Structures are given as C-alpha cells and as structure tokens.
Amino acid sequence: MEFKKSFVERYENLTDINEFMEYCSRPLIKSIRVNTLKISVKEFLERTELNLDKVKWCDEGFFVKDKITLGNLNDHFLGHFYVQEASSMLPPLAMNIKNKVLDMCAAPGSKTGQIATMMKNNGLIVANDFDYIRLKALDINLQRLGVINTVITNMRGYFIKEKFDSILLDAPCSGTGTIRKSPGTLDIYNTRMIRKLSSDQKGLINNAFNILNEKGSLVYSTCSLEPEENEGVIDFLLNRHENAKLEKINFKGLKTSDAVLEFEGRKYDSEVKRCIRIWPQDNDTSGFFVAKIKKL
Q: Which residues are catalytic?
C-alpha cells in the first residue's frame, strides 16, 4: 500500500504514523452483527458453523475468523446476520433511542437495521438518504432483516423539517478510517476534498440540531480520521448553538484515543475532548469518530 507524502506529513501530526500505516496495510478482520429481530444470539451461535470471536463493545457483534464469502451463506440470505464492520456498530449504541428516530444519511442501512433491533421494531424510524441509487440497497437490506418500523425518504438532509427525539447523522465523509478495506481512498485523497466535505457536514449537523427536540440527543459519526470532518464540525456546532452540550460516551471494552484539540493552527472548543476517536491500531478495526450532543 502506497501512502502519499502529503498524507503522511499530515497524519504524522495526529498519530504514530508508522503504527498507523502498519495496521492500514493489514487485511481487515471481517465482522457480523446478529439480527435479533429474527434470531437470538444464543440460537445463532447454536446453529452457525462460523468460527467467531466476540466484539467486546456490542453484544450482537462477532469477528469472523474464517476466510469465507459471508454473503453466500444461508443465514445471511435469511437475514439472521448483517455484515457490519465492528467500529461501525458504535454510533447506534451511543444513542438515547426514543420513539421517533431519524437516520439522516441511512443507506445502505447497517445502522438503521441496528437501531430497529434496539427498538425491537417498535416506534418509528425515518431512514433518509439523498442518493436515490443507494436507497435500493437500503430497501433490500431492511426487507431482508425484517425491519417494519421504518419509513424511507429521499432528500438532502439540509431540508428535513420534521422534529425528532433522537437523530443519527453518520455523515458522508472522506473515509480515511476505512483504508484497510478501501485502499483506493488513498488515490483520491486531497485536502480540497476534505474542506468540501467539512462544509457539507456542517450544514447537515446544523439542520440536525435544529430539528432535534429539546432534551433530545444527536449522535454524529464518520469513518474519517480528519479533524476538519470531526472535531472541527463539532466545534462549529458548539460555537453556533449555546444550547448544544457534548455528552461523555462509554463503550465497554473499547480502546479509544484522545480527541484532537488543535490542528494546523486552529484550536477547538475544549468540550470536544468528550468525543470518541478510534484509530485502526487501537482495536485492530477501521478508524471511526463518534460524538453525542444533547439539546438543552
């Protein structure tokens, strides 16, 4: 795997660059989430022949040690499990889920399906995505998983006006945390793209907070490791809304790294230290960022 000089110079200011590149060069360990809308974890473990290790932070999550195409298995076809990266299971677990939930950028549906299992198919989820083509995958996945409490909508997140008690904004991002499974991310990486994405993310999170009911909670997440897409977006929200309060998140068994408080001459609000930043070398997964905001 070849890393651009500009990428290395940028990231050596953020983490142990040699350890980061070493882990990014390793194959990503596959993982699945048991779909408890159709089968209990106990029943699944009794019937599966997969060689599994527990994902510490998710009761339904398992690392798969077999070299196998998981999508060809009957249990996948039946909706008994969803192929989901282990760090991708974190954002729904951070949510204070109530009866009316918005998944603002939902496709292809991994987190929507996870939220539905946490709600036991009760209440209402609005699963939105602006990309009509990606909605097909969302629709197919939710049908396979047996999700029945979800309405799918197709619009840009900036324009949603309905109010919600709980919102997940898993924002479109550069994906620099997913290099292990998508090495092509390095080929298209450039800082102009990061600035454009950061601007879009700020627009999305601003509207998400506007449509959040008082005392409601908003979880913002990305699979990016860029401060401009993560701490910078949260800093923007905190400075724009006095009634936005970051909440501390605790995930059992998860190793996390400190949030970035300053980057390239810009200091972020000290509250961003409550955000969760995960590097690939922390837990041998993809990189991820999660923040939980409460509306006072």
A: 223
The residue type at 18 = N
Q: Are strands 61-64 and 31-34 parallel, antiparallel or unpaired?
A: antiparallel
Contact residues for 265 (Cβ-Cβ < 8 A; gap 6+): none
Please provide the distance, in angstroms rounded to a whole number, between the alpha carbons at the two ends of the chain.
46
Please report which residue ranges of 119-212 form alpha helices under DSSP H.
132-145, 185-188, 191-210
Cα separation, 160 vs 181, in Å, equals 32
Residues 224, 189: Cα–Cα separation, whole Å? 12
Contact 187, 69 (CB under 8 A): no
Residue 138's nearest CA partner among 102, 109, 165 is 109
**How many Å apart are CA 229 and CA 222, to the nearest integer?**
8
The C-alpha atoms of residue 141 and residue 136 are separated, in whole angstroms, by 9
Q: What is the pLDDT of residues 172-222, one digit of tens each?
A: 999 999 999 999 999 999 999 999 999 999 999 999 999 999 999 999 999
CA distance linking residue 92 with residue 99, whole number of Å: 14
Task: Provide the token pair at 171.
Answer: 């924002």
Q: Distance (Å, rounded) from C-alpha 88 to C-alpha 72?
A: 22
Query: What angle do helix axes 231-240 and 191-210 make, rounded to 10 degrees?
Result: 40
Specify whether the CB–CB gap between 123 and 95 falls below 8 A: no
What does the alpha-carbon distance between residue 213 and residue 285 come to, in Å, rounded to a whole number?
A: 34
Q: Residue 131 pLDDT more than 90?
A: yes
Q: Which of 258, 251, 249 is nearest to 55 (CA)?
A: 251
DSSP 60: T
pTM for the model stands at 0.97
Of 36, 46, 122, nearest to 82 (Cα)? 36
